[in-house]
């Protein structure tokens, strides 16, 4: 009873113009209780919001780490790609021609032959011929009749010949060799007479050219 009379007395003083200190304190405590109860009601109405916000903060903190990792991976991939491109360029323009030259030199030392790399070098090695040689060659030709056309080459054999390149001819005392490159397979072959390349038999090796035989059709491959 005394408590109720005290609270009613404080209420009356609050309604007055000059309330007492006890009434002011009671008014502040009631405001604080009302705010706490309102917060509790909000939390009870949306219990998952705080957890969602905490997850969002964690993901936000982790996001810069993922960005840094992806950036480092991109740098590493770019470095590896640059190395592979550099290796391909070196292999195409420096290593491959050097290996072919080295192989030719080793073969020349072991067998004891000379290699003509192109027609100009072959012409320089040939001795000058006498004047009668050329006059006899002119006399053998029939200048009044047109030359006999060479037999046509089938399209299949033309395609195979386009994939082959004569790099050099090795003339030895016993067994001459022809150095032929297969462009499609990117390989170099040292062939002697009777050997096969792309189902074509190497029939003869001459100065500056080789004769191939494919199913009875003779094909010429030269520098």
In short:
The chain has helices at residues 2-15, 21-45, 48-111, 119-125, 131-140, 155-162; strands at residues 114-115, 164-171, 177-182, 187-191, 196-197, 200-206, 209-214, 217-222. The protein has 223 residues and is an alpha+beta fold. Among the domains are: 48-111; 114-127 and 153-222, SH3 type barrels (Roll).
Keywords:
alpha+beta, SH3 type barrels, 4-stranded antiparallel β-sheet, 8 strands, 19% strand, rod-shaped
- How far apart the termini lie comes to 127 Å
Named CATH topology of the domain at 114-127 and 153-222 = SH3 type barrels
Please estimate the helix content: 55-70%
SSE order in H/E notation? Answer: HHHEHHHEEEEEEE
The major β-sheet equals:
4 strands, antiparallel
Specify the CATH class of the domain at 114-127 and 153-222.
Answer: Mainly Beta
Q: What portion of residues belong to β-strands?
A: 15-25%
Please identify, by name, the CATH architecture of the domain at 114-127 and 153-222: Roll
Strands, count: 8
Structural class: alpha+beta
Rg of Cα set: 49 Å
Q: Any idea what the shape is?
A: rod-shaped
Query: Mean pLDDT, as a whole number?
Result: 70
Number of helices: 6
Q: Which regions have little confidence, pLDDT < 50, spanning 5+ residues?
A: 110-120
